[in-house]
ABC-2 type transport system ATP-binding protein (Micromonospora sagamiensis), 322 residues
Amino acid sequence: MATNDIEVDELVRDYRRGGSTLRAVDSVSFSVARGELFGILGPNGAGKTTTIKVLLTTLLPTSGRVSVLGHDVTTHVKQVRRRVGHVLGGDKGFYDRLTARQNLTYFADLYEVPHRVQRTRIPELLEQVGLSERSRDRVEVYSRGMKQRLHIARSLVHDPQVLILDEPTNGIDPVGARELRELTAGLTRQGKTVLLTTHYMHEAEAMCERLVVLARGRIIASGTPSTVKRAVGIPRVTEIEVDGLEPERIAAIRGLAGVTSVEVDAVDARQLIQVRTEPDADCLQAVIQALGRVRIGRITTHDPTLEDAYVALVSRAPRDAS
């Protein structure tokens, strides 16, 4: 039986503003298994950061139960903090006039990591995040990407089992973002449990084993990226260039199982057929057979992406949620 490192059960978090109450998180439930890379997606104001702060014990839940590695976040605060590392978006959080090595030593002391452990762990972490050659440079000269890599090293200095990454690649160039994604994937291979929030759907689709999508404080979808895409029902689109298309062939394609619509456009002397099918339908061979003996050129299939599903989900979310 799999062990869950994170358990969130019916989490509610309210804020008082003036004489009214704002519900930032509304009955959110999910679990994260040991060694899993789990994603929380959602637009600004969806409740992602509030959920993260509850997990990090910096906010108390209004109601519900939240535990990390079996420790309740409201009653076992010290135990949770000693076992969780976190990386928040942005490049703050370091002493810029200190070197990377000095910063890591400082945070290791705060976590009461023994000096004999620090002597091996800090160089290993600097090597792991690719900063060994720059470890004696002041952090003030680091790029944003380098600071984010140092953030990951800092979050691991006390060897936590659970790592929470809140938009770690935000504002970083594509090369730096790819390096951070590879570094994060490597942590799960080491057995770490990673909770990731991101606005980059391609990142979530490539990295997350499972995820939840939040909107206005509520979960509106959950599961693997493939499950979420299928649940939304966005059609697969296949484009086929042909010569000499006859009208009865289009009628035959429209009658195929799994086909939801067919459109035909003229492209110079050729025709471009756009066939939309149900997400799980594999109709290509049947479509080609229905075309008969027409000359077929380019064939391109566009599968729905997680971004397509995310946009559809968020746009459909009830407006009265809060």
Remarks:
- The chain has a mean pLDDT of 90.
- The two ends are 36 Å apart (CA to CA).
